[in-house]
Each structure stands twice: as C-alpha cells, then as structure tokens.
Amino acid sequence: MKKYKFLILRRIIQLSFLFLFAGGNYFGWEILRGNYSSAIIVDSLHLSDPYAVLQILVSGFIASSSVLLGALLIFLIYALIGGRMFCSWICPMNIITDIAFRLRRIFKIETEAKVFVSRNLRYYILALSLIVSAVFGMAAFEIISPISMLHRAIVFGSGAGWAIVAVVFFVDLFVLKAGWCGHICPLGGFYALVGKQAVIKVKHDKEKCTHCMDCFDVCVEEPVLDIVGKESDFIRSGACTNCGRCIEVCNDNAMKYSLKFDLKK
Fold it and tell me: What angle do CA 124, 235, 113 make, to 5 degrees?
C-alpha cells in the first residue's frame, strides 16, 4: 500500500469531485455544482479556471466579479502552493491517461521513438487557443476540451464525449507516451507556467539515490527528473504534476514532498 498511497488518495479526490458534480445534477445537491471551468460550492463560493476565464476575456466578453475572484483564488492556490497539481489530483482525464500509461508499461508498447512530438507543443497550443478565442469571440479550448467532454459524459450522460476521450486514450496507448498530459494539453501547459515557483515541490536527495531509475519508469514528465542521481535539489520544473509517483516507487527514500523554504527560518 505504501507504493500506492498517493495514487489511491488522488483517485479518491478525483472520483469525489465527479461524484459531487453528478450529485448536483441528478439529486440537486448544492455541495458542488457546475464543471471544471466554473463551479460553485454550497451556493456561495465561486471557483473558476483561470485559463478558461482568460479565454473569455480575450474573446471580448466581460466576466462577472464573482467569476474573476474565483479565477484569482484558483490562480493563487496553484501559483503559490500546488503548482501543476490540478493535472494529477483533480483532472478526471488523468485517470484515463494513467490507465494508458500503465498499459504501455505492462505490454511494453514503445512507439515514441517513431513519433517525435516536442513537449513544447502544449505551449504553442495554449497561445493558439488564446488567438483563436480573440479572433472568433469564443473560448476556443473549452469547446473541444476532452476534460469538459468527459465531465459531460459522466455527469450528464452525454455519449458524444466518450468518442473524444477514446481518441485521447488510444493516442496515449499506441502513438505517444503521455501524449495528452505530457505534450498536448494547453491547460497543463498553463498550469506549468503558473506553478513554476510554487512552494510545495518534490525534493531529491542525491546521497540516498542508488540510480535505480524507478522514478523514470513511472513519471509522465521524464525531463523534469534531470537532476536525479546528479544533485540534491527540488524538481523545479513547472511541468512536474506533483503526483507523488516518484516518491512512492523510490525504495531509497531519495524523493519526498518538501517546502521550498525553511519554516524554522
């Protein structure tokens, strides 16, 4: 269980969000209503995805003060505290892509050598989504987002969304390892930029590391582990999702969550 403690906790949190969203639709619960772009907690606290709000603003529409404050709150949480934790702890697509990632390892499916896609592609898509939003006056990514489609498929029973989710799954499984989360998703790219300086990071201890490289086997963002075995430091790249898998599989206890500042000081 020790090797899966963060994975289990992540699944509980992800499924809990889906359960509460579904409860709001099917049973009228007021605990959590809306979607991953804009939600309201107990009919009082608004939460908004800052990337979605940014698309709305550049498209020429005016967001309400509650939406703007909700976006600011989420922005500060990830920028100052959690980094890219939305991707691994909240996003429902993470469940789908993790299954594909796991199956690739089980069946030893190796195709990325034949298909090279830069991890910077997500940042280009991020910029393109804002340009398209501004030109066409709509929140471009929100219309085609697999995250939104998976939410609608589960919460509202919309069958069309499963087709897009299936495409993402099979691309991740047979075409490109961590294709969606590691290369394509502009929302992940947005939070990678936002959370680069977050205070909660994974810290590597070179003195304990035995170079087993188990962390590389489970990490969907392998380039962020460039310091492993070389120096003791934080995983400083904003692309790290803080999922904790590297911590779980490290038998040397060379990886751990840590704060980027000393509370004693």
Answer: 55
161, 108 contact by CB (below 8 A): no
- Number of other residues whose CB lies within 10 A of the CB of residue 263: 5
Q: Which residue has the tokens 């697999």?
A: 146
Taking the chain (265 residues) in runs of 10, the rounded mean pLDDT of each run is 92 97 92 95 95 97 95 96 95 97 93 79 98 97 95 85 94 95 97 95 97 96 96 96 97 95 57
Residues 6 or more apart in contact with residue 24 via CB below 8 angstroms: 30, 31, 32, 33, 34
Q: Is 24 within 8 Å of 14 (Cβ atoms)? A: no
- Cβ atoms of residues 199 and 80 within 8 Å: yes
Task: Record the pTM.
Answer: 0.94
Ranges of H-type helices in the chain: 5-26, 50-58, 65-77, 85, 93-106, 121-136, 140-144, 146-155, 160-170, 179, 186-194, 214-218, 245-249
Strands across the sheet containing 45-48: 32-34, 38-41, 45-48
Tokens 């070389």 locate to: 230
Residue pair 122/141 in contact by the 8 Å Cβ criterion: no
Can you tell me the distance from the alpha carbon of 46 to that of 203, in angstroms, rounded to the nearest whole number? Answer: 33
